[in-house]
Amino acid sequence: MIGLYRGTSFVSRVIRWFGWSRYSHASWLDIGTMTEWEAWTTKGVTRAYFGINHTPGTRVDLYELRKPLSLLDAKLLTDFLDEQVGDKYDYRGIVSFALHWLGASKDKWFCSELVFDGLLSAGRRILNGLEAYQVAPGDIAKSTDLFCVGYMIVG
Length: 155
What we know:
Blueprint lengths: L1 E5 L3 H9 L6 E6 L4 E6 L3 E6 L9 E7 L5 H14 L3 E2 L1 H9 L8 E2 L1 H11 L15 H4 L5 E8 L2
Parallel strand pairs: 6-7
Antiparallel strand pairs: 1-2, 1-5, 2-3, 3-4, 5-8
């Protein structure tokens, strides 16, 4: 499941403004264990309990794939995400999707790039015509392969 955050911090507001979106952050969430994989500015790629890195009260809209992942594909996805844990945050990538240039960094991630490439590792391309480094958090919500199932509030 994809979590799309409606962050309210200064950085979140800047990301939302550049992305022309209500969303400032994206993560992959295993709802059964409440484990969340995300690329975080101060910590890089982490695997932690849902919302631990976020301000209490932040709304997170939850998106499911219209065609659920098979068990094998879900394992491919989480294995890919686990392999990225510890990688640094991709500040260059944030500038890239804001200004539409620069391209991808190797071994660095920003949030929506991580989610998008994670899904690619499981054989799912949720947005055609875009590379991972071009995907802002709000772009993910535009995928016709996803639907919103509700929301949770951090904390």
